[in-house]
Amino acid sequence: MTRGAAVGRCGIASRTSSDAATPQRSDASPARTLFLSTTGGHLAQLVALAGRLPGASDALWVTHDHPQSRSLLAGHEVWFVPYVGVRDIPGVLRCLPIAHRAACAGITRAVSTGSGIALGFLPYLAARGVDCHYVESAARVGGPSLTGRLLARIPGVRTYTQHEHLANGRWVFGGSPFDAYISELSEPRPGPLRVVVTVGTAAEFPFRRLVEGLVPLLAPDGSLARATGRPVEVLWQTGSTEVDDLPLTVSPFLPARELQAALDEADLVIAHAGTGSVLAALDAGAAPVLVSRRACRGEAGDDHQLQLAAEVARRGLGSSHEADEVTVDDLLAALDRRVGVHSERPPFQLAPRGVPRRPLAVKSWA
């Protein structure tokens, strides 16, 4: 069931404001979980995380209306809310009435992977007694995001990192999604080379440098075709990037299942270093060629993609590059590698309710 942001007044029409008290339940009562995130990599991580959480079958999802969210959450109960952008204080404030409505709908637990949308829900829900958990994006290798740093100081919000070296008094290590993968040698497949280029879903951040740099490499008579002697077929997923003047046939946005199907068939994946794109490529068995967005060029809010790409490269699961430095040799090297799954992802254990958090971090981030 899919709902818009304007659904219901409180979810329970007969309640008055005095009836909408702090949600109460016994330890034996089932949890009703709110899963909350923005679209893109945050939502992709949350969908994967939800499958690892015990007792999350009764769930309400809150996110933005986008082809990706409609595809990933088909069949789920969803409330779509207006987009919350980077450092978007008015957008955060617009979420508060919807957070109130979620509390009225009987939410007893809230789990978010960010980004700023979490600030519009978790502090309010925690104050109402909801069990709140914030899982920082796997992209944050060097330290938490601004959203994470703020939420770590909110009473009642538990915070988790996906990188063990960042665990401390405020941040619980919940496991890394990259631990399940291993790099392997690839056997070449016959036929044309199938390539997927993806820049993700961020509406406010184009990434033209990536596309422009790849055109001569991936053209029908380009460097890759000449080096391999094989025809090259490319799916260009370009997001908000304007490419009308380039000799390309593009798909700005694709439903998640269509994009994953293309990744599954691809011989080569070239992607911006966003967490959702990285995990989708790894799940498809590709060792992606990762190109990091740069904040100074208006391609991202900060340079966290550099850290994520470096971490993936350190693990041997892909390679990291600047947009204007990708060469045909880099593409050929990626064709020689595949990624396999060598372990099942264990359940993600949220910190028990009522266990006090240590008062101060023993490690600080700039």
Provide structural commentary.
With 366 residues, the chain is α/β, with parallel strands linked by helices. It has 2 domains: 2-175, Rossmann fold; 182-341, Rossmann fold, CATH 3.40.50. The chain is built from 12 helices and 15 strands. The strands form 3 sheets. It has an 8-stranded parallel β-sheet. α10 (275-283) links the parallel β12 and β13. The chain starts with a strand and ends in a 25-residue tail after the last strand. Residues 1-29 and 356-366 have low confidence and may be disordered.
Short description, anyone?
The chain has 366 residues and is an alpha/beta fold. It is 27% helix and 18% strand.
Overall average pLDDT: 85
> Roughly how much helix do the residues carry, as a percent range?
25-40%
Largest sheet: 8 strands, parallel
Domains, number:
2
The number of helical elements comes to: 12
- Give the termini distance in whole angstroms: 43 Å
Radius of gyration: 21 Å
Which CATH architecture of the largest domain would you pick?
3-Layer(aba) Sandwich
The third-level CATH topology of the largest domain is Rossmann fold
Beta-strand residue percentage: 15-25%
Order of helices and strands: EEHEHEHHEHEHEEEEHHEHEHEHEHE
* Unreliable stretches covering 5 or more consecutive residues: 1-29, 356-366
Look at the structure and name the CATH superfamily of the largest domain. Answer: Glycogen Phosphorylase B
Helix/strand structural class = alpha/beta
Shape label = globular
Strand order of the largest sheet: 1-4-3-2-5-6-7-8
Q: What is the CATH class name of the largest domain?
A: Alpha Beta
Total strand count, please? 15
Quaternary status of these chains? single chain
